[in-house]
């Protein structure tokens, strides 16, 4: 599973880069609620990516040892997304709801872009 860990580390770097851009946008623009929503959603998305990577590694180890595993943690990832949306709905003047939803999808977009980059990089 070293390639899974390397993929996770690479994607985590991309998300940290995006988070730093969002923090700069929050600090230096007048669109603070939008960038704060992006920071909140992307942070939750990063946590969900970490959970998914950890559960996938546990799943791989369980399959290799012939054991069973209950799930890949879909409920906990959904709960995190609901929590982020709840925070945005509780403080609509501070956190932009649509930005939170876009931020929650960030890790999936990063996964797809990373997949295409790695696919085209390996072909060359």
UniProtKB/TrEMBL annotation:
Subcellular location: Cell membrane
Keywords: Cell membrane, Membrane, Transmembrane, Transmembrane helix
Source organism, top-level taxon: Bacteria
PANTHER family for this protein: ATP SYNTHASE PROTEIN I
Main location: membrane
Entry keyword annotation includes Cytoplasm: no
GO cellular component: plasma membrane
UniProt membrane topology term: Multi-pass membrane protein
Stated name of the protein: ATP synthase I
């Amino acid at each position: 599973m070293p390639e899974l860990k390397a993929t996770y580390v690479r994607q985590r770097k991309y998300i940290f880069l995006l988070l730093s851009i969002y923090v700069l946008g929050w600090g230096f623009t007048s669109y603070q609620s939008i960038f704060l929503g992006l920071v909140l959603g992307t942070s939750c998305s990063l946590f969900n990516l970490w959970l998914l990577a950890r559960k996938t590694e546990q799943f791989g180890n369980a399959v290799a040892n012939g054991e069973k595993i209950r799930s890949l943690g879909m409920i906990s990832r959904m709960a995190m997304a609901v929590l982020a949306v709840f925070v945005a709905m509780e403080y609509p003047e501070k956190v932009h709801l649509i930005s939170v939803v876009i931020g929650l999808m960030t890790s999936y977009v990063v996964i797809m872009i990373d997949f295409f980059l790695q696919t085209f990089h390996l072909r060359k």
